[in-house]
Write a structure and sequence with these properties.
Blueprint lengths: L3 E4 L10 E4 L2 H6 L2 H11 L11 E2 L14 E7 L7 H14 E10 L3 H14 L12 H9 L12
Parallel strand pairs: 1-2, 1-4, 2-3, 4-5
Helix pairs in contact: 4-5
This protein binds S-adenosylmethionine.
């Protein structure tokens, strides 16, 4: 059987696929007893996740897969969460784990479409500053791109 991998799978988990995600909810869903105990503190987000998702932070690290073992690699709306450097490492890792002749499909937001909508909405504002009423075309543009700036580190105060 072909080896199929879904990277940054979220809740879109394929049967007979190796599904990998860095969400703590994915980690908790594999430890339902512990998650149940912690639910009053952490909330119920983990309940939406199926068990069996491989948990791993893929921001610039090694994919938890052996060399040249994957036939199909799929990743949707994940790569844009990485920095450019992390993305470069990620694609090198993809090349490492894919078999010769394997397939890779990576889905990312439509930059051109989002940029066109942004300019159209900006023109529609007619130069008015709509931020005061919470209607900033730039906010929608950023949301559509899932743009993340440099990672913010949590620093205890
Ligand atoms: C926008 S969701 C996309 C989920 C799914 N692929 C889809 O198309 O609906 C992005 C997913 O990537 C995961 N993710 C983001 N950064 C990650 C990282 N550094 N390592 C592993 N997973 C990450 C998140 O936990 C989330 O499930």
């Amino acid at each position: 059987m072909s080896v199929r991998v879904n990277i940054g799978c979220g809740l879109c988990v394929g049967r007979d696929w190796i599904n990998i995600d860095g969400s703590w909810n994915a980690w908790l869903a594999n430890r339902r007893g512990l998650a149940g105990l912690l639910t009053p503190i952490i909330g119920r987000g983990w309940k939406a996740w199926p068990a069996g998702v491989v948990h791993g932070d893929l921001s610039g690290g090694r994919l938890p897969l052996k060399d040249a073992t994957v036939d199909i690699l799929y990743s949707a709306h994940f790569v844009e969460h990485l920095t450019k450097e992390e993305g470069q490492v990620f694609f090198r890792e993809c090349l490492r784990v894919l078999k010769p002749g394997a397939r890779i499909r990576v889905v990312v937001p439509d930059l051109e479409g989002a940029a066109r909508r942004y300019l159209r909405d900006l023109d529609a504002c007619g130069g008015r500053d709509l931020r005061a009423i919470g209607e900033c075309p730039g906010d929608e543009f950023m949301r559509q791109l899932s743009v993340s700036g440099p990672r913010r580190r949590w620093v205890p105060s």
